[in-house]
Amino acid sequence: MSFSVTEPSRGTKWFAGLLVVGYAIITLIPLLWIVATGFKSPTDSIAYPPIVVFEPTLEGYVNLFTDRTRATPEMLEAAGPPTTWYEEITRNRGTVISGPSRYGERFLNSVIIGFGSTALTMILGTAAAYAFSRFRVPLKDDLLFFILSTRMMPPIAVAIPIFLMFRNLGLNDTHLGMILLYTAVNLSLSVWLLKGFIDEIPIEYEEAALIDGYTRFQAFYKVVLPQAATGIASTAIFCLIFAWNEYAFAVLLTSGTAQTAPPFIPTIIGTSGKDWPAVAAGATIFLVPVMVFTVLLRKHLLRGITFGAVRK
Amino acid sequence: MDSPIDRAAIKTPDGIARRIRGLSDRTIAWIFVAPTIFLLLAVNIFPLIWTIRLSFTDFRVNRPNNAIEWVGLRNYERILTDPDIWATMQATAHFLIWTLVLQVLIGFTLAFLINMKFKGNDLWTTIIVFPMMLSPAVVGNFWTFLYQPQIGLFNYAVAFVTGADPASFSMIGDVNLAPWAIVIADTWMWTPFVMLICLAGLRSIPDSIYEAAECDRASKWRQFWTITLPLALPFLMLAVLFRGIENFKMFDLVVQLTGGGPGNTTTLTSIDLKREAFEKWRTGYSSAYAVILFVTVFGLASIYVKALNKVKER
């Protein structure tokens, strides 16, 4: 082991590690509580004192995906024995499944709008970032600053005219409208980030390709794109997470057909009082993909959250 | 402007330039930039101009048949003299100041500790980062469950530590506690953001400076105040800028947590604006409100960035 005067002593490191791990555990508790509540029965979920050890049940998940009606014993008798495991769970509560809930649709909307806007953002953003990075574009600096400054506006303030505009164009509560909106919002972040990534690719590669007889287009997609692949991928994940998590525009501009999951999850209610296991189940399914993406993104996280202002 | 490509483009000999077939660079540049510019104009610039226009009228979305009248600066005058708006601004200021103070203190401390490079620090950093990546609305909604009197985990934990009755206080129902409920949830969510930026700042300080200080027999305490803090300060200020702008716009987390209540104690400007625009449908009035907010953020951010650049130059 090499000796360094600046390296903290073993004891200090131990103490620092202990404090950080302690904070991490405390900060994780609310998230673990969401996951755990999803597997609790309604009575367990509101028990006092809060219980940590419980018998796991999928009732929350069944309630999340189904609409149920209360049934009298005679009706249950007439319906015959339950044929599936999820029917059995609802029968035990004296209810029958009347159909699927809206959660599936809302989740699918989130997927369509999230991936749709991310794909569009990346196509437009990569092209624009390449042009900003490699060509003389008039008013380049002003344009980039302006793109960024649009993010300073509270979403509600922007939502007023967008609401009017969408209403006139028939885009209110449509997938296309939301995809275009999220694309426009994400473009500022992605052009800024992607320009940083492309700036880092040595210009000599393209020059060599051009000398070899490639056209600009060929040089762009055969040389620059593969080089920028990691940067593009991490930018795409950032755009996806933004569209996935977005709430303000979604709650104001969508109500039915194109509503995404974030405005929907808080509206989940049970037959008697708030059905917290169902809410927690919905939240778990919605949040876990983002956690996976966060782990994938960890090397570029800093760059993404600071608009490329801080690069490691 | 003087990027390598500009220099390279100028220096490209004619012989090679002639061999580059296809579209000229100028055309390609425009093809590449035009769609982005168009979309940004349509969804960012055009609405902004429309908002400014509407702010001088008495237009109401729910009464489209009424004739729109120009009212000049009356909307602005009414907003700036409305005592309720100033109460909202105070709630926002309380939220802004306390979240910034707590997040900077905790975030910087965490970054400082992580920078000791103990075993497994990467793994724990990633775990700490989780809350800030999640949907604020979904998480905020779940925090109302944690804040329930009696059954809520937060109340239980506080009661466990202080010995109070967990049913005796309601974080989101009490006028005095609600402003703190949103500060706590926001701090939980966004401290990792400040931490990550501070960590980058601390890692950018070269070891050689500390080695020199060690040779000069400077105490660890002195090293912290004369090396660590000044050199990490630009990063810390950048984190404050980002969090400041974000929390000034704060909507999703708080609207789900308290909905602005009880009373108006947690009605931040964005929530107030939403009520004016989408519940009372005072479109002209709320447009003026939006313009005022935008000018405020933009003005404050510009002053701040100037200060930040001064610190960087030192």
Structural descriptors:
heterodimer, A: 312 residues, mainly alpha, MetI-like fold, two-stranded antiparallel sheet, globular, B: 314 residues, 2 domains
Strand-helix topology:
The complex is a heterodimer of chains A (312) and B (314).
Chain A: H1 10-38, H2 42-45, H3 59-65, E1 66-70, H4 73-79, H5 85-92, E2 95-100, H6 103-134, H7 140-149, H8 155-169, H9 175-199, H10 203-211, H11 216-227, H12 229-245, H13 248-253, H14 261-264, H15 276-297, H16 301-305
Antiparallel strand pairs in A: 1-2
Chain B: H1 4-11, H2 14-19, H3 25-54, H4 74-80, H5 83-114, H6 121-133, H7 136-146, H8 153-162, H9 178-203, H10 207-215, H11 220-248, H12 252-257, H13 269-278, H14 283-313
Helix pairs in contact in B: 3-14, 5-9, 5-11, 6-9, 9-11, 11-14, 13-14
Describe the model.
The complex is a heterodimer of chains A (312) and B (314). Chain A contains 16 helices and 2 strands. By secondary structure, chain A is mostly helical. Chain A folds into 2 domains: 11-101, no CATH class; 104-267, MetI-like fold (Orthogonal Bundle). A two-stranded antiparallel sheet of chain A has the order 1-2. In chain A, helix 10 (203-211) runs antiparallel to helix 11. The model of chain A has no long low-confidence stretch (mean pLDDT 87). Chain B has helices at residues 4-11, 14-19, 25-54, 74-80, 83-114, 121-133, 136-146, 153-162, 178-203, 207-215, 220-248, 252-257, 269-278, 283-313. Chain B contains 14 helices and no strands. The longest helix of chain B is centred in the first third of the chain and has 32 residues, at 83-114. Chain B is mostly helical and 314 residues long. Chain B has 2 domains: 4-54, no CATH class; 78-313, MetI-like fold (Orthogonal Bundle), CATH 1.10.3720.10. Classes of the chains: A mainly alpha (312), B mainly alpha (314). The interface between A and B is large, with 109 and 114 residues.
